[in-house]
Structure formats: C-alpha cells, structure tokens
Model the fold of this input.
Amino acid sequence: MTAAMAVDITTGRLAHQVVTVETRLPTPNTREHPMVRSKRVREQRRVVRHALERLAVRPRLRPGQRLRVTLIRIGSPRCDTDRANISLAAVRDEVARWAFDVPFEAINAKGKRYAPRAPDGPNDRIDWLYGPHEKAPKGMRKYQAARIIIEQP
Done:
C-alpha cells in the first residue's frame, strides 16, 4: 500500500489523497465458485478498508457538497474499460462505506454477519470516475492493484 496527500497552499485544505492497494482484481470473465468469489470480495474489502483507515484525513462533507473518487486498475492482463470497472466493484463499495462511516460488517437479528449497503448509488454524494488502465511494473507479470484518488471540492 502506498499513500500520498496534496494540500492546497492557498486555502490550507486537503486537495486530494491517493492510495494504491495491492489486491487481486480478476475480470468478470473469470470462472469462480460462489464461495471462492465471496472470500475474494471479502478480502478485497478488508484490504481496501485497512488502507483507507490509515489515511490521515477522512472526508468531511458539508450539505450539498460531493466527493469525487477516481478508481484506476493497475496490472496485467490488460482489459477493456467495462471489465476493468466491474473488477473494481468491491473497491468502490468499500470506499463508499469508508467515506460515509458505514461499518465494515454488521450482525442481523439472526446473528449472521453481513456487509451493510454501500452508499454508492446515483443519489448519493460521490461522483465516481474511472481512470485509464495502467500496466503492471516491468517484471511483475501477475501484479494487480487499485489506485484510489479521493478529491474533496
């Protein structure tokens, strides 16, 4: 995991934060047993939440203010934009949960653990952008990661 922050020198406010999280990001064409997929998604969410919790500043939104988040898939094999966006679904859900302080998991009335709904719909206050796919570092053929850029206007 790598993290960086940029501060606007004119206002002294945080301009944006960048986090790169190493995690497996298979494309939707990957064949997986449902239980294997469930474990992978849970692990992706755990790794992303851990990286975001280590950031210095959680976004504070005023009424009417929106957050802009850019997600970039890093790795090989290269894939087209729609598959790259779908492979970042668990990352997107966890960023939304973290930004609005939704817990990682909750327990229902029957005592079962579940992931609460991620506030990432069209009416929620996050604008989602997807950057261009980046190639894996030279010599690291199986490397996969997600770069998360959080900007607060």
